[in-house]
Design brief:
Udp-n-acetylmuramoylalanyl-d-glutamate--2,6- Diaminopimelate Ligase, Chain: A, domain 1, Protein-Tyrosine Phosphatase, Chain A, 3 domains, six-stranded mixed beta sheet, 16 helices, 22 strands
Amino acid sequence: MNLSLEEISKAVGGNLTAPGSTKVRGYSIDTRTLSPGELFFAIKGPRFDGHEFLDQAVEKKAAGAVVHASAVGPVYERPGAHITPSRLPLIRVGSTTEALQQLAQAVRRLWGMPIIGVTGSAGKTTTKEMIAAVLGKKFTVLRSVGNLNNELGMPLCLLRVERYQNIGVLEMGMSAKGEIRKLASIAEPNEGVVTNVNPVHLEFFKSVDEIAEAKAELVEGLHDPKIAYLNSDDSRVRAMARKTDGKIVTYGVKSVASFKVQQVQDLGLDGTAFTVHHGRRDLNFVLPLLGQHNVTNAVAAIAVGATHEIGWEQIREALAEMKPEKMRGQVLKFREGFSVIDDTYNSNPKALAEMIRFIGRLQGWQRKIVVAGEMLELGPEGADLHRTCGREAAKAGLDLMLAVQGQSKEILEGAVEAGMDRSRLKFAADAVEAGELLARTVQKGDVVLFKGSRGVKLEQAINTLRAQFTSMEP
């Protein structure tokens, strides 16, 4: 969607300082990644101000910049800078963030193709990738890059749309009420997938029910033909059916659903085989991703694919080709005879408990070790939620549980309460200390799971192992 500066200025209600026939090649909010010919949005946040980088935008040969009218007079001046329309065309607006969102909405309407929004407390990115892979067997798909899913990231994803793409899959995240409603008003999704509602971001919400209300904003914000894909295993998600007058498609593993998993066969570190019952058919799939939670994510993708009339063989093929996203269940093998599961991107109590149970079921390993980082943003229930995961660790029969940072100590207390011997429980103050401890402890025949909140940076511990042992990664 190569629009001219004039067209962009009109779409955002801005004031363009120079003739605007120049076509923009792309959009950026970061001069470090800005390419020549792109339009730079000078976003102003609590800890940064994009207006301070207009010089860099000139140096990078930006097509122009969108700036706050209040910050820019006829000439934008500050020490060391003298930005004039001849150096950099400017579009003056009331709010650069709102202008980015307005332009994304305008482009979405100009494009006019169906969009599927994906939200939930966990599994959003993996589910989005699976849906995109399945739909990619028939359509040319616009999809969110990585986890660009907030008020800035999602509009940037929409602005990357190409005219030849004919369906979109966009991830929508939130940490406060109203955020998904805002994203839905920009993207105007026709379909919505809700993966689950878990106790995450409880620091910002009074209850899990409040989190569910915030996630339901996607279902409430659907545009025709309005299709909601709801996880029937989650009672709060199931209840979202009342939030729309559109079509409801349910999927699940444990409860009655339109797309119901009948059998699950654990293939260890090679993934999972499972059967889905739909209509009068039983369909077999193999998913090379770890954990039952990924089976649930896969069934969501199957439901979307089938609704869009993707052939069963094509859906089967798309799922069989899936590879884990970086730091989201990647299996790393070492020549010294042990394996690591890198699930360090994020964590929450439900996901950690599921992965602990998964490790507990693994066969053929001499020792099973879990390195669990602190789970952040859990609010006043944090200690109890950590202890619950400790009880799961005791049930799973782990050989070693290493808790990392802050409130993760409560995991160890929960494990002791459930009968796990303290000699098998360790605590590290941070990821660096955890890596050093593991490097002294790990041995041939071990399988080690690393999982923690992003802020714990558990990948640093894995990097210590990479430095001291020989990884077999290609």
